[in-house]
Amino acid sequence: MTSLALTHARFRILETIRIPIAVVGGAFFPAASMLFFVVPFAGDNPEGATFATASMVMFAVMTSCLFTYGVGVSEDRAQPWDPFTRTLPAGPAAAFAGRILAGLTFMAISLLPVVVIGWLFTAATTSATGLLLALGAVVLGALPFTFMGLAIGYALPMKAALAVAQIVFFPLAFGGGLLSAPGQAPGFVETIAPYLPTRGAVELVWAAVGDFHVSATSMLSLAAWTLVMAALAAWAFRRDEGARFS
Amino acid sequence: MLARTIEVSRRYGDTLALDHVSLDIPQGGVVGLLGPNGAGKSTLINLLVGLRRPSSGTVELFGGDPRAPQSRRRIGVTPQETGLPSTLRVRECVEFVARHFPDSVPPAELLARFDLTDLARRQTGGLSGGQKRRLAVALAFAGRPSLVFLDEPTTGLDVQARRALWDAIRDFADKGGTVVLTSHYLEEIEALADRVVVVGHGRVLADDTVGAIRAMVGIHRVSISAADLPDLPGVVGVEQADGRTSLLTPDADQLVRDLVHAGVPFQGLQVQPTTLEEAFLTLTSTGR
Fold first, then answer.
1. Is A209 exposed, middle or buried (0-12, 13-18, 19+ CB in 10 A)?
2. Looking at the whole model, is its pTM more than 0.90?
3. Is the ipTM of this complex over 0.90?
């Protein structure tokens, strides 16, 4: 990690925390989803609540990545500050890394209430090791969505980026089985899920917090999605020349 | 040679913004890029600083591709539009930019040089347009550049702030720095530039000293006080100001003779070479 990446991260974090409601807003959605969808339905069953909390964490992570990066990058590109920073002597790596570090920071802030609600109001349970492993799993699982968001943000103008992020996130969440417990999803979802990055990501978290064994197919496709999305994001960044008007 | 373009063209869809432009930027001096809106000045700068890729032709910056980060280590840029992250403080913006360069100016020193010390703790969103502009220009100098690109640096500044900025730019050039400058204010080009490149319709129409550009067009201003003037041959422009009439003509001697022959009563005859602005308007209107 270069110090320039840390510089980018630091200033991005500074920019956002000076607008506190943006931070609160990011934390609200996953916390509210927990309260409305997990607490009433799976709250009493320890295993179900644990897996459901884990799914909700991944759902929040994916949504946050697609929107923070997809819409955020696209919005930044329309501002004159962005082309200015591109005249500075630094390649894409520092800006990418800085953005991701800042994104992870805010993701952590928004996930904290989910975990706290899971702990206080449901029967969800895990060990300290499990929690630590889950943290690693979330970071790994967030990668393909981070790159996907970046690719969307760099490739599309803001309104298009918003639409694409909205169109992409639901099939990924539902198709990947985030909205059901392990093995409980409708048949066709169980069939396609292993090939979607959401499934691999949530399997990592499930395995971290509970008794679950990840499937090789899901892991391979998670790795493949991560690599392809990283390449796509890098390609979109390189071809980007700021917001285009014609 | 610090930077150059060789036969560079750039299109946006159907629009040809630059049409086979070849331009050399050697070390030292201030190059003024002059041209009406849409002439291709900003596109040219965007190509030179690596923001855009040419559709055809070659762009070089310190011998390399401007899109490679290491080629941009010795440049500074002030874009035409001032966009600063509104929640960041002035000093933070300076620090952010400075960290990209191996040998940057200490932020306090840079702020002092551009008279921004008192604003260091302010968020940029709360600055006036002129203050933002001053910061945007200061940022171009953060990395101790040897070549700076200033795209309309003093737009929106009052006269005093503009003069202060001119001093800073001139000071940089006097110490061996090279400046590429675009401006709407011809006064600014005349005050700062050693060399003027006139761009129109995506091409370089003229590339010479300020004096030579003026002489090349050879238009003179014959100004008189007169009540009524007949149509006179060879007049390419007429302006009225402060009760005086200015006639623009390529042949001032003949015009004066014609005035006398026509028996027009006039007073206070003055013959002057035109300003750069008039030269520039003539060049760009006939450049097609």
1. buried
2. no
3. no
